Amino acid sequence: MYFCVHCTAAKEEEAKKRITKLLSSALEEEFLVWFPMKEVKEKRAGKYESVDKPMFSGYLFMYWEGSDERRFPIFEMKRLPTVINILDYDDGSHALKGKDLEFARWLHMHGGYIKQSKVIYREGQRIHICDGPLKGFDGNVVKVDKHHKRIVLRFDIGGNVTDVSFSVDFLDSNNAVNAKHEPTS
Questions:
Q1: Which domain holds residue 146?
Q2: What pLDDT score does 175 carry?
């Protein structure tokens, strides 16, 4: 089961520690709490450097091996300092489902850390993410910034739409297309 916690921005690590302590004492099953980060290329002194930045300020994700949500300490967690709320649905459940669940699994699959992806882009055509953790998000592109080597993707988490900027490596479309169509033996 996956859950999403809204906590005080800039207090994510403190919230993560408190939640981990609570879950360690309350649960028998394995769990994981993470604060999603992304690799961003920033230009400093004329050179691009890799810097880690929060993917979503104020949001933590959790994975729990349990199967009965009623055993997960939701109410105890809500009482922790720095925790604002735990994402919930109209039916009162908190375990992520649908697109929220798919997104949490995708984050988990990448260890909560999204590295730079490779992108093919020709002016006037749809962008294609051909390699890296963002592969498959082609339809969610909101903005392309070739100058700063970034794209903006739109995410919907629990009904909240958020645009997130990611660093990408723009490939020469001719070389990338040729590389994709090399014969295999």
A1: 116-185
A2: 52
